[in-house]
């Protein structure tokens, strides 16, 4: 069974540019989560999809972040315009049932 | 909301010795406590978890203990090996919430180094 995949693995952009991160969850997993780890700090929750619906987006930092999951399969997280403080590793996770979440390898975003 | 503290931030242990990582949580309603191991270039992988109706759980060289009264839980790795070197994260979660609050709250991570 393929695990959670994320693309790209690494992205370097200038402040003010736009970046779109993609996550492909494990097939059949209705629950999809986005998390972020800023250097040296904890992994923080951003939002949770159940199929194509946003169940909880309380962790989204501001309206520069937009997450979508059209069709309930893969998800994208767009940052527009990117700021320096958006740098970090963005993780996606999926689960079939609530609790046990399987994480992808992450996308390391560097905003210069 | 939930807040999880994790100590130590770094830990070096001689190969063969034991390693202990401790976490405390703030929300007494949390009832599920997973531990994740993150190796270089990979995402966090679930290695063991414990639910609040259990005080201890073991899986080969790894064990987790939970003290609900004190709101702390610990990861114990015995007979450490070089491949145990990684960053370990504890987390707390509320299973069965009806409020859509189904998110993991993580600690800040412990970088464990096993010295050969």
What does this structure look like?
The complex is a heterodimer of chains A (112) and B (116). The model of chain A has no long low-confidence stretch (mean pLDDT 93). Chain A has 112 residues and is mainly β. Chain A has strands spanning 5-7, 10-13, 19-24, 31-37, 43-50, 53-56, 65-68, 75-79, 88-95, 102-103, 107-111. In chain A, the strands form two sheets. In chain A, strands 2, 4, 5, 6, 9, 10 and 11 form a seven-stranded mixed β-sheet that branches. In chain A, strands 1-3-8-7 form a four-stranded antiparallel β-sheet, with no helix packed on it. Chain B has 116 residues and is mainly beta. In chain B, the strands form two sheets. In chain B, strands 2, 4, 5, 9, 10 and 11 form a six-stranded mixed β-sheet that branches. In chain B, a hairpin with a 4-residue loop joins strand 7 (62-67) and strand 8 (72-77). Classes of the chains: A mainly beta (112), B mainly beta (116). The interface between A and B is medium-sized, with 27 and 26 residues.
What number is the mean pLDDT of chain B?
A: 92
Q: What's the story with the biggest beta sheet of chain A?
A: 7 strands, mixed
Catalogue the unreliable spans of chain B. Answer: none
Described by its quaternary structure, the protein is: heterodimer
Strand % of chain B is over 45%
Structural class computed from helices and strand pairing of chain B: mainly beta
Give the SSE order of chain B as H and E letters.
Answer: EEEEEEEEEEE
Helix content of chain A: under 10%
How many angstroms does the end-to-end distance of chain B come to?
A: 41 Å
Assign the structural class of chain A, choosing from mainly alpha, mainly beta, alpha/beta, alpha+beta, or little secondary structure.
mainly beta
Most extensive chain interface and residues per partner? A-B, 27 and 26 residues
How far is the N terminus from the C terminus of chain A? 37 Å
